[in-house]
Amino acid sequence: MVNTLNWFEIPATDFKRAKTFYAKVLDAQIQDDSNPARQYAYLPSDPQKGGFGGAIGCGENFVPAMTGTTIYLDGGNDLSVPLGRVESAGGTVILPKTAIGANGFIALFIDTEGNKVGFHSIG
Q1: What is the DSSP letter of 29?
Q2: How far apart (Å, rounded) are the C-alpha atoms in residues 4 and 67?
Q3: What's the confidence (pLDDT) of residue 37?
Q4: Helix residue ranges, H only, 1-123
Q5: Dist. CA 107–CA 51, nearest whole Å
Q6: In angstroms, rounded to a whole number, what is the distance separating the alpha carbons of residues 73 and 104?
Q7: pTM beyond cutoff 0.90
Q8: If pLDDT is split at 50, 70 and 90, which confidence band does 55 have?
Q9: Residues 6+ apart with CB under 8 A from 51
Q10: 7-121: which CATH topology?
Q11: d(CA 123, CA 59)
């Protein structure tokens, strides 16, 4: 096993709003699933470089939450950059950039759907 985590899904109640939020915060294109029968879109990932991916999903089994497991998205070289886009995209920062010793930095935010999500970076 290379990575403990290999996939995650971020639940949405308003699919278009969630896609817009994550596209702005991550400064990336969010790719819709090719199946028109479901609302599902892929966040950027590069499995060829050892990364893993995730998606935004909307529907019966996708319920946003503030409790439970917290997913930490890659904050790049400095998580201050994507974190700085959270509020203008409609989210709320609940933990500013915080040092966690030799493991770098984390921050937490609430997305437009009501999910608690984090960023992690080394710098």
Answers
A1: -
A2: 21
A3: 87
A4: 15-26, 80-83
A5: 20
A6: 13
A7: yes
A8: very high
A9: 45
A10: 2,3-Dihydroxybiphenyl 1,2-Dioxygenase; domain 1 (3.10.180)
A11: 36
Q: Name the amino acid, one letter, at 3.
A: N
User: Chain-centre distance of CA 51, in angstroms?
Assistant: 14
CA distance 120 to 63: 24
Q: How far apart, in whole angstroms, are the C-alpha atoms of residue 119 and residue 107?
A: 5
pLDDT in tens, 60-111: 999 999 999 999 999 999 999 999 999 999 999 999 999 999 999 999 999 9
How far apart CA 79 and CA 19 sit, in angstroms, is 20
Length of the chain, in residues = 123
For 31, 72, 87, the CA distances from 22, given in Å and listed in that order, are: 11, 13, 12
Q: Can you tell me the distance from the alpha carbon of 83 to that of 120, in angstroms, rounded to the nearest whole number?
A: 10
